[in-house]
Design brief:
Blueprint lengths: L13 H11 L4 E8 L4 E4 L6 H8 L1 H13 L2 E4 L9 E6 L4 H13 L8 H4 L4 E9 L7 E6 L6 E2 L4 E3 L5 E3 L4 E2 L8 E4 L2 E4 L2 H8 L3 H17 L2 E2 L6 H6 L2 H6 L10 H10 L12 E2 L3 H11 L3 E3 L6 E5 L4 E4 L2
Parallel strand pairs: 3-4, 13-14
Antiparallel strand pairs: 1-2, 1-5, 4-12, 5-6, 6-11, 7-10, 8-9, 11-12, 15-16, 16-17
Helix pairs in contact: 1-3
């Protein structure tokens, strides 16, 4: 991950693309998918009354942003090398953003097999993103608009009431209701990803290149300084990459501050479940073991000299919680 792949392909001219879209924006064919926190997409049946509202909610804001930007000098810059700022549209690719590529791959190749969403079977509270797919004969290929949603804020018949046209309070009629964010977040066309809200893009696809790059460098340093043992098919880079909490935790770790023998001894004093093999290597079976190991490196565990009780340091304020 030391370099991005976006330089290997030609990026779409997003302003020219926007001009083509403007000509057909009122005649787009739309599909909606809900995606849960595990990354599983669900097709959504659409009523005829809703169809005319989809493009205005998902497309028009993005189109307006791009058309204004074309006249004011909006600059397109690589997400991996830049931060969000006024006058800049960040760009990445599906080659770089693995979870975006996986999601779109499923929608493109398995759409007929994707299960239809049902509140009874799937529950909207498990959903964290909505994907709108748009197509038109005059566009080279479909494009996708992705938005972060809060499943926990949805309304349902069990806990909600509504006010009807006569102003009367009555039971909530729909099975479920939710609010669609109206801000511009992420646009994907071809293999290009255009990022209108950096923080939401990171949450949508769990992709923070700068943090991940630092994490990979830290892992390489740790592997150089410590003897670790992993099950077949697993390694430290893989475990860290797949765990956002570990990516964040490892950012400030300084692995040079403690030696392996000292770390093992301290782990035993704290009665942590960190094991070693016959060769003295620290055994890392899963992300839990790795979290304990990184916590020791980060000096997250404290033993009280007064009581002998063991604590875990948590949060920016370094508050102590008892380690059971």
């Amino acid at each position: 991950m030391s370099e991005t792949k976006s330089e290997e392909r030609e990026t779409v001219d997003i302003f020219a693309w926007a001009n083509k879209l403007d000509a057909v924006k009122n005649d787009l064919t739309a599909e909606i998918y809900f995606v849960n926190k595990k990354g599983t997409p669900f097709r959504v049946n659409l009523s005829g009354e809703l169809v005319p509202q989809i493009a205005p909610v998902f497309v028009y804001g993005i189109l307006n942003h791009l058309q204004k930007g074309a006249g004011t000098g909006l600059a397109v810059r690589e997400f991996e090398l830049n931060d969000e700022e006024d006058g800049v549209l960040l760009h990445s690719t599906t080659e770089n953003v693995e979870k975006a590529a996986q999601l779109l791959g499923t929608i493109k190749t398995q759409s007929k097999d994707i299960e239809i969403f049902s509140e009874y079977d799937h529950e909207f509270k498990t959903i964290n993103k909505v994907v709108a797919k748009f197509s038109h004969a005059n566009l080279a290929e479909p494009f996708y608009v992705v938005k972060l949603v809060s499943g926990s804020s949805s309304l349902n018949q069990r806990t909600s009431w509504e006010i009807n046209e006569d102003g009367k309070l009555q039971p909530f009629t729909p099975e479920m209701a939710f609010k669609v964010p109206t801000d511009e977040q992420v646009l994907i066309t071809g293999g290009d990803i255009f990022i209108f809200k950096q923080s939401k893009f990171v949450k949508l696809f769990d992709y923070n290149y700068k943090q991940q790059l630092v994490a990979e460098q830290k892992v390489a340093e740790i592997m150089r300084l410590f003897d670790l043992s992993f099950p077949d098919g697993l390694d430290m880079q893989k475990l860290v990459k797949e765990n956002r909490a570990l990516v964040k935790k490892i950012q400030d770790v300084d692995p040079t501050e403690i030696k392996q023998a000292e770390l093992i001894k301290y782990s035993e004093e704290l009665e942590l479940d960190l094991m070693t093999d016959n060769d003295g290597k620290i055994i890392i079976m899963d992300s839990g073991d790795l979290a304990t190991f990184i916590g020791l490196l980060n000096d997250d565990y404290v033993m009280s000299d007064l009581t002998g009780k063991k604590y875990i340091v948590r949060g920016n304020k370094k508050s102590l919680e008892k380690n059971e």
